[in-house]
Amino acid sequence: MYSRKNQHDLTRTEKKRLVGAVLELKRSGRYDEFVTLHQKYYVTDAQSGPRPAHMSPSFFPWHRKYLLEFENALQAVDPGVSIPYWDWTRDSTPAASLWAEDFLGGNGRSGDRQVMTGPFAYGEGNWRISAGVTNDPFLRRNFGRPSAPVTLPSKADVDRALSDPVYDTAPWNSVSTTGFRNRIEGWGISGIRGVANHNQVHRWIGGSMAGAASPNDPVFWLHHAYMDLLWARWQETHPRSRYLPARSLPADDPQSNLVFALDEPMPPWDVAPAKLLDHAHLYSYV
């Protein structure tokens, strides 16, 4: 049993140990395997295959398992490391502590948006992008996307999602207009230029975080740890609400065999959402 802390509360030593473990995974090639895995399972509802990771009810359990696998890899390097979370409703500016030079580094420079500061800057020699959407070998960020401005979501945005007592609703995809899952995942619901919450944060950071290879930016893990925390908070707020769909969809449903019901194993781990509903026996949030 271990804890995941708010990144705002990390000590200098905790930051250094986390960065060191991430860089070691990068050196070993293990980190890029996680990036490639996310790319593989970034299946949209405009495609024909199953969607365990995005635009579907299993967005939360799939990413919980994904984070656990990454955390296990980190702890194989340093057993005292865990994934912190970034509450972007609180730390919502480029001056926030996670963007400091001793942690994740800052925004990209004008022009090519290359990150020039921090341990993940290309110039430091430890962070070459090899599994990206573009051919750029360097980490890119474009905070707020000045050419078409985006803001980070607010606490009120999160609270609206948390207040929805239903986990997810038909058609179980990016156009579901109610349900906690898509209110947080943020496809086509109210928000900045048609995105909200989770998606809005990816867009605000921009650069390497703006596509299927988004784990190339280490902030991905802190962002998704916060997603995981919000799921836990929703469960606490609505103890009688359950993961939906509870059973496999009928054969005549357009989403049949594309989304994962409560007891249907998700690739690549062959684990069902039902096995990932409760994190309390593994870690806590502080």
* Ends distance: 13 Å
Number of helices: 7
Q: Could you list the spans in which at least 5 consecutive residues all have pLDDT below 50?
A: none
Largest beta-sheet characterization: 2 strands, parallel
User: Could you tell me the strand content as a percent range?
Assistant: under 5%
Helix content: 25-40%
Features:
4% strand; di-copper center containing domain from catechol oxidase; mainly alpha; two-stranded parallel ribbon; 286 residues; globular
Task: Give me the secondary-structure topology.
Blueprint: E1 2-4, H1 12-28, H2 30-40, H3 59-77, H4 155-162, H5 180-185, E2 187-192, H6 197-205, H7 219-237, E3 283-285
Helix pairs in contact: 1-3, 3-7
How would you characterize this protein structure?
The protein is 31% helix and 4% strand. The chain is globular. The protein has a single domain, classed as Di-copper center containing domain from catechol oxidase (di-copper center containing domain from catechol oxidase, Orthogonal Bundle). It is mostly helical. Helix 3 (59-77) crosses helix 7. The model has no long low-confidence stretch (mean pLDDT 96).
Gist?
This protein has 286 residues and is mainly alpha-helical. Helix content is 31%, strand content 4%. The mean pLDDT is 96.
